[in-house]
Write a structure and sequence with these properties.
alpha/beta; Rossmann fold; nine-stranded mixed β-sheet; two-stranded antiparallel ribbon; 22% helix; 26% strand
Length: 219
């Protein structure tokens, strides 16, 4: 599997993602400039990643301008053909703005930027320690959309405590139903607020991020 990492003006996690994929996971990575359009070097077995940061300075809403970049038009087409796409933090916001994923990311409930390690889990899997760094990471959707996500098993990660218990205390931003990440119905587009690329190196004494890529089938 080959990876493409899109670089927007204001991206600040693009090189972190490149380093994690290349050096920690041993993957081939191609950096993609936001003004370009060509994705012909990728097949639907590959993955395009929208990294974290502050694309276009987070003017308007987070991800609202990046959604209209030339590269995003190609990413949308790539996803609609079955290609894998992962959005992390700001990348998750862009996926929601583009309509590739339902819902929206709102300002954190405490109205503050949060940067710390949290724990997330996938269904009945173990708690994984993954960093977050966002000011607008509170996932929200209407009840019908949320029920649809639950029914189709589209919630891929929820915030939990160190022992894997899902509760309000372990929810860092007030995300509805404790949602930290979701996928589309076709299971090829994934979005999450926590940063797995920041927990993939043995030098950081935490490689739980590698398990995230495994869970998503991107290993």
């Amino acid at each position: 599997m080959k990876f493409g990492v899109v670089v927007f003006p204001g991206s600040n996690c693009d090189r972190d993602m490149q380093d994690a994929l290349q050096n920690d996971l041993g993957k081939e990575v191609i950096m993609l400039w936001h003004k370009d359009k060509d994705l012909s070097m990728f097949t639907t077995e590959d993955c395009i990643i929208l990294p974290g940061g502050f694309s276009y300075g987070d003017y308007l809403r987070c991800g609202a301008i990046a959604r209209f970049s030339p590269m995003m038009q190609s990413v949308i087409e790539f996803a609609n053909k079955g290609g894998k796409v992962l959005g992390v933090c700001n990348g998750f916001q862009i996926l929601c703005e583009s309509g590739l994923l339902p819902g929206v990311l709102l300002q954190n409930a405490n109205q503050q930027f949060i940067c710390k390690n949290v724990f997330i889990k996938n269904v009945d899997g173990p708690a994984l320690k993954i960093p977050i760094a966002h000011g607008e990471g509170r996932y929200h959707a209407d009840e019908a959309t949320l029920d649809d996500l639950e029914k189709n098993d589209q919630v891929i990660f929820r915030y939990c405590d160190e022992k894997g218990h899902i509760n309000a205390t372990a929810n860092p931003n007030g995300a509805i139903r404790g949602i930290a990440g979701i996928r589309n119905k076709q299971n090829n587009v994934f979005g999450m607020m926590p940063h797995p690329e920041r927990a993939s190196s043995t030098e950081m004494s935490n490689i739980d991020g590698r398990k995230v890529f495994e869970i998503l089938g991107l290993n």
